Amino acid sequence: MEQLKQAIRTEGSVLSANVLKVDAFLNHRIDPVLMAAIGREFAERFREAGITKILTIETSGIAPALMAALELGVAVVFARKQKSLTMRDDLYVQKVYSFTKQVENEVTVSRKFLEKGDRVLIIDDFLAHGEAAFGLAKIVEEAGGAVAGIGIVIEKSFQNGAAKLQEAGYRVESLARIASLENNQVQFVEETIHA
Amino acid sequence: MEQLKQAIRTEGSVLSANVLKVDAFLNHRIDPVLMAAIGREFAERFREAGITKILTIETSGIAPALMAALELGVAVVFARKQKSLTMRDDLYVQKVYSFTKQVENEVTVSRKFLEKGDRVLIIDDFLAHGEAAFGLAKIVEEAGGAVAGIGIVIEKSFQNGAAKLQEAGYRVESLARIASLENNQVQFVEETIHA
């Protein structure tokens, strides 16, 4: 998605070979016009997938998920991240390890908001090792729904999340795919291919 | 705002005389059509206020703030809630006490996303004691901006936040104002007046 790649080029900053900071338009400041375009792009890619619900995870997945939901005419549910819980009878719970923050969170979704037969589009801001996406997919399946696809704003293709998700049979659509952040440079996958 | 009040009536649940649960359309599951209507309503009320930026706070403020930002043609910044911080040179920090959760959080905004001269609309999902709104307002003012208004989705008018904010000179626009949650009943302010 060219508009997104342009935003990454001009407003993103490479903090290390693993970390791209996009707090200028996605993770802290949000550009609503770009989010609307991202929502339309997700909707276009998954229009024929029979989506009944979008599942995302707080915090930075909410904006792109909401715009996609508006386009697709479905509701969004955002999973919560918590350290640990006492009351959990009414929740689906999955442990998700964050490599970036080196901490394990419990990701929870209220049982009443996922239904048997739901065809769920999982949306998240970043895909790195795939931990969050796998956790959300397990929750969908535990609820008796199907994962109709996984929509990612920025895929770090040099990490193995996308490959692992595809091996597991999931359809992954990433709007920007980053091949490398070496030497403080953002290299997109497409650029490498066409070079 | 009738559409919002209808959603509160049909999908909200009163947990106690102080707590209204709206996780069916705002705090966990999000209804994007209702959020778009909420965004339009905020935009209409603040159209002439010269808003240059919207400031909200994670997590549940993001959806209504994003839809209002799209309507007003400005960016959103969402403040982060954290327990405590070590690195903070580049952040505005305010302590905010949550009466509901009985915990003090630090609310932070990156210095680079607020500017001198900004006219900021603060948006949040709930207004109770006004702690979060006052914290965000202090951050705006510390940055040299002005608080052009405070837009609230659901005001618990039986608590004193709205009154305190108005006393302090802020314009508060709440889309639903709740007079009471006694006896497991949602009573709106308008209904009380017209009764």
Automatic annotation (TrEMBL), chains A, B:
The record's catalysed reaction(s) read:
XMP + diphosphate = xanthine + 5-phospho-alpha-D-ribose 1-diphosphate
* Record domain Phosphoribosyltransferase: where: 35-156
Listed under GO biological process in this entry are: purine ribonucleoside salvage; xanthine metabolic process; XMP salvage
Its Gene Ontology cellular component terms are: cytoplasm
**Which molecular-function annotations from GO does this UniProt entry contain?**
xanthine phosphoribosyltransferase activity
Superkingdom classification of source: Bacteria
- Binding-site positions, 5-phospho-alpha-D-ribose 1-diphosphate: 128-132
Q: Name one Pfam family in it.
A: Pribosyltran
* InterPro entries assigned to the protein according to its UniProt record, in alphabetical order: PRTase-like, PRTase_dom, Pur/Pyrimidine_PRTase, Xanthine_PRibTrfase
Query: Which positions bind xanthine?
Result: 20, 27, 156
Which SUPFAM superfamilies does the record associate with it?
A: PRTase-like
Q: What does this protein do?
A: Converts the preformed base xanthine, a product of nucleic acid breakdown, to xanthosine 5'-monophosphate (XMP), so it can be reused for RNA or DNA synthesis.
What does the record note on quaternary structure? Homodimer.
Query: In which family does this protein belong, per the annotation?
Result: Belongs to the purine/pyrimidine phosphoribosyltransferase family. Xpt subfamily.
What is the protein name stated in its UniProt record? Xanthine phosphoribosyltransferase
Organism the protein comes from: Paenibacillus aurantius
